[in-house]
Structures are given as structure tokens and as C-alpha cells.
Amino acid sequence: MNPLDIASIRQDLQQRQPAYLDLLRQMVEVNSFTANPAGVNRLGDLTAEAFGELGFQATRVQAADPSLGKHLVLARPGEGPVQIGLVSHLDTVFPPEEEARNDFRWRPVGHRIYGPGTVDIKGGTAMIYAVLDQLLRHVPALADRVTWKVLLNAAEERLVPDFGELCLAELDPERTRACLVFEGGALEDRVHSLVVARKGMAIFRVEAFGKAAHAGSAHPWGANAVVQLADAIRHIAALTDYGRDLTFNVGVVQGGTVVNRVPHRAWAQVEMRTFEPAIFQEGMAAMGALDGMSTVRSAKGAFPAQVAVTVERETGPWSPNERTEGLYRVWEGAAQEVGMAVVREHRGGLSDGNLVWHSLPTLDGLGPAGGNAHCSEWSQDGSKEPEFLDVRSFAPKALLNVVALIRLIQGPGDVQAGTG
Length: 420
Fold this sequence. Notes:
Elements: H1 6-28, H2 37-52, E1 57-62, E2 70-76, E3 83-89, H3 96-101, E4 107-109, E5 112-114, H4 122-138, H5 140-143, E6 147-153, H6 161-170, E7 176-181, E8 187-188, E9 191-198, E10 200-209, E11 213-214, H7 225-237, E12 247-255, E13 261-262, E14 265-274, H8 277-288, E15 306-315, H9 322-337, E16 341-347, H10 353-356, E17 362-363, E18 370-371, E19 388-390, H11 394-410
Parallel strand pairs: 3-6, 3-7, 7-17, 9-16
Antiparallel strand pairs: 1-2, 2-6, 4-5, 5-19, 8-9, 10-14, 10-15, 11-13, 12-14, 18-19
């Protein structure tokens, strides 16, 4: 087999980068806020049309929640048994009115391009397109061996579990060599961060039930639900343990109706995050132990207020594991070939990788670099700056991904490196 001409791929990426970024521009100009299913589906159509030029067939799958958009599956059958999954998502966190209010749009400034989704994660989708285009242009026989599946979540910002189920249905664990997630990856001094682990997250609803009473004439007969909730909140906050990367965030609190009434009901939402499965389960148990907590009673009648804890959402941690480490080593070797380096990142936020890593070899952070994800505001003093893509990262990261995928498909020693 002829040596791999890395220099030619690098040059071609640089020449074709404007076309790849123009595809990204088209994507960014479509508002695809999670709760805007028409926009999400419109972006899905645009994406399907673009990947159709590379030989991909589209299937749309309605999200389990009918108020959301449609997941998109793009498939290109191969001649061999190997499958590779490439994962991105269609939705962003910006409602149309927020984009308009902040004049948040496609805006190139120097080596940055500002705009909704430029790095989270439409830039990742454009990266997938660039990588596949380069594989088909430079090593078509190799690319044709693989069944490629590009899977795009309609509601990743809510991390809907049905998308994980869709990925596992589309990607046969016996055939899938990798499930690659194209969330943005940091770049510093030619060193790319690759995500090999992510925190798990659980969201709890903590409710306090008390006894209502007139605040003036019957205060002693009331059992204050707000005070009971406050006791529970102090207990929850004390569960945070930074030494073990275990955090509890009381993010929403509501209670009472009017000031002249002892409140009979109050509630809060609490988010827990941590990396280690055992610590995650300890945190779940600690929150569960608060169910039934009662520290507040009415002064007369001794009516007990009480706490009830329910789990609203639970997504376990993606822990370091051998299959992810095996993929990391492939990318590490490719980085050395192209004159770069990679480092492992354990990231606090969740991604679709949390939903599939236990069944498929998974690596994340394969998209381009940027910053300020989920931010849309500008300020004159520069203290507020919106989401952006660092254009300087695009072609180098694409090159790294192309070479790594070639090495992954071929196996050790099957392709020799050319001059780079």
C-alpha cells in the first residue's frame, strides 16, 4: 500500500476550509433552539442535503417528546464489517428572540467566528463533514470499507435518553470500532484536549409540606414549609465535597403565596454532579435519605412539616475505561505523526457520550476549538463575549481526526506515514 501523504491532506484541508466554513455559516443561520422543532428540523434537512453529496442516506426519527424535533441518522453502507459512529447534535440553547435581542449572528472577527452553535456544536457537524470528505477524497478504498453512521440528536441540550437508545440501535457493538463525539475540544500551543470522561448528573425535586395558617391571628398553628425547605437546603449544600469532585447545586427555589400566610408548600430543584460511579451512588443515597426529613413543627398542635425527595433525571458518569483509552492512544499516535500533541480531559459537562460509553468505545472533544459556549451577550467593556469558533483550530483538528481514523480502520502497520 502506498504511504499516506499527510502533506497533501493538510494542503487540501487548508484549500477547502472556506467551503467547510460556508456550510457552517448556513447551519448557524438556522435557529435551532431545542424548543423550536421547526428550526431543528430545518437544520436537519440542510444537514441531510449536505451529507447527501458524500453518499449518505437520511432517516429522521421523531424524539420521544413530541414537542421536540427529529433526530437525524445519516448512513453510508460500507463493503466490510466495520462500523464507525460520528455523533453531533442539531439543537442549540438560544431562542430566536435572544439571538435578535443580542444581535447574535454569524460574525467573523479576525481568527474568530462568532455565532450560535459555532462551537457547540454546529462546528462539530461541519468538522464531521470535512473529515469524511477528506477520507473519501484521499483514501476512498479505505473509506468504502466502513459503514459510516452520523447521528445527530434533536435535543442534546436536554440530553434526552431516547437518543442514546437510537445510537445503540444503529451501532452494533460487535461491529462498531468507535463512537466519536464531536463536541468542541480545547487547543493550546498545538495541544488538543480529547475528552475521555465526563461527570454524571442527577436532578432532584425537593418539596417541603407544612401547614398553612393566618400569619397574624394563627401563626402558632402554622408549620412553615419555607423554613423546612431551608433546613433541607443547608443540609444539601453541606454534601458538596470538592476533594471528591462531588457537587450539589440548589438552582431553583420557590415557596409560599402571600406574606400574610404561613406557607404550606415550598420546593427546590437540586443538581448533583461527580465523576466516579461509586461517589455518584453515594450522592444519590444521601439525597434519598432526606426523604421524610422533618425538623419544623407548629408551635401549637405540633404539626410536623416534612420533606419529599424525587429524582427527576439521572445520567450516570462516563468513567475512564480501557476502550476509551484505546481510542485515545490511536489519536495520540496520529498527533505525533502530524506534529501535534493531545492530552486527556475529564470534563464536568455531559454529552451524548454519557449515554453510549458503557456499550461502545467512545471518545469525545473531536470538534474544533472555541469558547463561551451557551453565551450570546456582548458588552462594550469586553466583559461579556458570545460563543465563538477559533478558525485556526479547524484544519489542524480535521487533519488529526482524518489520520487517526485511517489508523483506526487499518490497524497497526497497515499504512505508512508519508512526509508531513
